[in-house]
Amino acid sequence: MFKRWITAAALALGLSALAQTQIEFWTYYLSPNFDNYIKSTIADFERQNPTIKVRWVDKQDTMERDLTAAVALGKAPDVVNLWQDSTFAAAQNKILTPLTQLVNRNVLNQLYYPNVLDMFVMDGQVYGLPWYGWLDQGVMMYNPDLLQKAGVDARTIRNTDDLLAASEKIKKATGAYGWLPPVKDPNGASFLGRFFLEGLPVYDKDGKAAFNSPAHVALLQKYVDAMKNDIIPQELLRKEAFQLSNELYSQGKAAIVVGAPTTLNRVKEANPDLYAKTRIGPAPLGKAGIQTGGAMSLVIPSASKNKSAAIRFALFVTNRTNQVKFANVVPIVSTAAGSENDPGLKAKSNDPLEIGKGMNSASGRLINPGFKPPKNTDDIYKNFNDNIEAAFLGRKTPKQALDDAVAFWNANAR
Amino acid sequence: MKRQALTTTLIAYAFLAPALVLMGLFTFYPVFYGSYLGFTDYTVADLASGEGPRWVGLKNLEFVLGDPLFQTGLLNSLKYLLVVPVLQIASLAVAVLVNQKLPLMAFFRVGYYIPVVTSISLAAVMWEWIFQKEGFLNWSLQLLNLMNAEGRFNWLLNEHTALWAIMLVTFWRGFGYYMVLYLAGLQSIPAELEEAATLDGATAWQRFWLIIVPLMRPTLLLCSLLSTIAALRVLEEIIVFTGGSGGPLNSTYTALLYVYNKSWGNMLNANFGVAGAAGLLLALVGFALSYLNFRLTREERSER
User: Fold this and answer.
1) pLDDT (tens digit per residue) in A41-93
2) A382 and A254, same structural domain?
3) H or E segment to which residue A407 belongs
4) In degrees rounded to 5, what are phi and psi of residue A75?
5) Max CA pair span of chain A
6) Is B60-112+161-303 a domain of CATH 1.10.3720.10?
7) For residue A95, which of A23, A252, B18, B48 is within the disulfide window of CB 3.0 to 4.6 Å?
8) A81 and A54 in one domain?
9) Dist. CA A357–CA B213, nearest whole Å
10) CA distance B143 to B157
11) Mean of the per-residue pLDDT values for chain B?
12) How far is the C-alpha of A71 from the C-alpha of A80, rounded, in Å?
């Protein structure tokens, strides 16, 4: 009798193992900081879907390389965490599954903020489910001592022009920089964001690049002059603004940081006294009155062998419950529709970081990527950045730089 | 006897086999396949759809040669070679100095070797401080009255100095390595020669140029060859100092950075055909320079 039981049990185990699907999930730079969150989310999913096992791998610097290699080797992962530019590049090269093959578009429209979902639409197809997002402007954090010394009242800083004007006063009075705007970075085309924030279009109505109007030129000129007069540091041409802001703010060499409140985590580590003093206010916006931002995506490679299990898992990870949980671990912006009313996202204390989190995490409906990357992104962005750099270094006039960039863009966006 | 010779040969090959297999797999095969890809059309899209490379002949080579970015890159790579003679002479000179039997020499030898084993990302942080506007380099130049406060600039943000600044870092990193090779070479110079020269009244300068440099020429040429190839292959420094952009204004964009950016650097948009062709062209330059170096060594040997 006992023997028979054992046999039956073994058979059942064997069968359930056979019926189990294993999927592989790749994240981007989330381990070790968020191990607990990711592992518990996977455990929840496996409990609800006993036939699916998830193997989690965190990729870092080599994500794109490894993804391409895995696809080429026929060992594609099933769910992969990419970002907008990489989702576009992968979709263009036909590495990704159009997700509407797996789930109805109307369902997606209800699950996510439409502005964010649209970021991952290429040629009418959805290629990524929106995951955690961020706002580029976020909030304004400032060093009240430096502002006071310069006679600047933070409440009067309402837009980017005010920010530049305040930066000039601060630099003259204290020698410290004020605000460090992103003007160029190696992996994107930051200055396009500046245009967009001021309400200047990147494309014309036919989808051609059109950022060389007199208004665009004047805007670039304004920043070029600011750099020439050392109101914004030249080092911005070499380092990403958020990185430089972090460094200089913590050293007391920059007075204002506009960005995600998570920036303060680093200030807290590097200079606890300054962290305690730091004040927070709403982010000054450009003339367009909008925030730019972005979001990570979860994509399913077309070479995945378990697409139905993969989409089930991707929908689970990106659902509102799990994004709100994530936002309570680290102040990400939830991209799941309805998050602005989620009780899980209300501020819990008066700590500057807590207030910032509260303002931030529930604002997914404000995420606006501004514009879609062009096709042939790498070459076009490189040319754009080279031209912007030439203008900042005084080798081209802003008009010449933008004319050249537009001409190259329109000739090379396939 | 013959049989014994055969056994010896077989044993020798058996010892070589593991290394040969590994090199075949990870060096020779990639070299040949990469060269082949240079003549084909092969992108990530092909890779993803399982399509193989399509032969296109010289199309990629034409494209690469006509691409202004590659031309700039090649020019910068050639400029980078200027680090070679300076590096070699300086490390030989210092090798001679630390070869003397004086107190604390071991300390100096270790000191000069430390940059070789220092991680470039760490070293980059230090060098960025040195090169920045308020940095050590400008401060020193001001102290020497070679620069005034208004003339200060960031050496990595000026298109006329950025490449030289990065070359200085390569110099600093390579210095200790070549010094050790020269130290080994110096041990083989008979002490009598120098002693005789000293007795004849030769100055230290004369001894260096007329005795040490000629006798060290084989080592000098070997090291020059190694460092020429290293200079053509420089990539780490450029990536850490410019984030892979080769800026400012492409003044630090090298030919290998072009290869890298067409393949690994932007993997999801990689074009292996173009990267292969550019790599092939760069290899040709390397071959030409190596050949030149070998020719020089051969003449040197026949003269003796």
Assistant:
1) 999 999 999 999 999 999 988 899 899 989 888 899 999 999 988 898 899 88
2) no
3) helix A398-412
4) -120, 45
5) 91
6) yes
7) B48
8) yes
9) 67
10) 22
11) 89
12) 12
| A 375-394 → B contacts, CB under 8 A | 376-378, 382, 385-386, 389-390, 393
Q: What is the pLDDT of residues A222-245, one digit of tens each?
A: 999 999 999 999 999 988 888 899
Strands (E) located in A328-385: none
> Which residues have CB under 8 Å from B151's CB, separation 6+?
none
Domain boundary among A254, A269, A290: A290
Strand-by-strand arrangement of the A279-282 sheet: A177-179, A254-259, A139-142, A279-282
Dist CA A171 CA A174 (whole Å): 6
Given the structure tokens 């090291």, which residue do they identify?
B223
Given an 8 Å threshold on Cβ–Cβ distance, is A393 in contact with B261? no
A10 CB near a chain B CB, below 8 Å?
no
Residues A147 and A279 in one domain: yes
Structure tokens at B87: 């590096």
pLDDT tens per residue, range B127-181: 999 998 889 999 999 999 998 888 889 999 999 999 999 999 999 999 999 999 9
Residue A398 dihedral angles phi and psi, to the nearest 5°: -55, -35
What digits encode the pLDDT tens for the residues B174-192? 999 999 999 999 888 888 8
Per-residue DSSP letter, A315? H
Same domain, A123 and A205: no
Please tell me the predicted confidence (pLDDT) of residue A302. 93
This model of the complex carries an ipTM of 0.81
For chain A, the domain total comes to 3
Distance between CA B254 and CA B242 in Å, rounded? 12
Do residues A153 and A280 both lie within one domain?
A: yes
Q: How far apart are CA B25 and CA B72, in angstroms?
A: 33
A160 closest CA partner among A187, A136, A143, A184? A136
Nearest to A228, CA basis, from B29, B82, B55, B153:
B153
**Biggest alpha carbon–alpha carbon distance for chain B:** 81
Asked if B268 lies within 8 A of A93 by C-beta distance, the reply is yes
Contact predicate A317/A43, CB 8 Å: no
User: For residue A10, what pLDDT is reported?
Assistant: 55
Please report the beta strands in A233-368, taking only residues with DSSP state E, as ranges in sequence order: 254-259, 279-282, 293-299
> What is the average pLDDT across A388-404?
95
| Chain A residues in contact with B242 (beta carbon < 8 A) | 186, 238
Taking only the tens place, the pLDDT of each residue in B6-57 is 899 999 999 999 999 999 999 999 999 999 999 999 988 888 888 889 999 9
Tokens of B24: 């075949």
CA distance A115 to chain B (A): 25
Cβ neighbours for A32, distance < 8 A, ≥ 6 positions apart: none
